[in-house]
Amino acid sequence: MHILCCFALKNKHMKQFILFTFLAIATLAQAQTGIERAGAAKLSKSPKKYEPTNYLKEMQANIKQLYKTKKFNGFKTLAKNFRTIADGEKNKWIPYYHAAYCGIVAAYLTQEKFATEELLNQAQQCLDKAFVMRPRHSELLALQGFLYQARIRVNPQQRSKEYTQKAIQTLDQARFADPKNPRASFLTGQFLESLPKEWGGGKTKNACKHFKEAKEKFDAYKPKSEFSPNWGKNANESMLKGCN
What we know:
The chain is mainly alpha-helical and 244 residues long.
């Protein structure tokens, strides 16, 4: 009945009604389009890109955080941050080094085998890029040996033989490349200490010898720059406590 009455309106009123309805629909459509555009802009907004001009600022911020972080998520995030910086710069090996280091430490802080393997694969990619720029660099070789140690954790029964040999060989190369590198000695001692007793592992005279050598090297070590590797001293001191 109401519909019939509406259609019975005079022409003048009908025109006003149609015009009002058209304006209402147009306003609604315009508003909806604005919402859709805003939503699309929000969804399509790309993440903030790394700017090469921010290298010093970004490195300083992440290095500062690096020596405060103790948990898995912190190291995982830092690995990603350093990798972003390194990929943005393309010609600096130091951020790749720190990205690899953080990834390896994060791998040690999780029991998830898939996560461990993924983190180590990413760390290896960073090391590979760093080696292109600094072949046979002692710090990179030491870190490579550290990564080989972490590979064993994924499947000790299947990987022990292969990666034990690789770790020992690479750490030997790191000590030879720079006899003053404290991390090469510390990581060697740490690896020997982690081996089974039947393989000569544990706090043996051999492992402790490397911890003692590392202490002397850490005491004399002076970083070449504010971004140079500067970790391991406290861990080495802890290892020394069990040595005679």
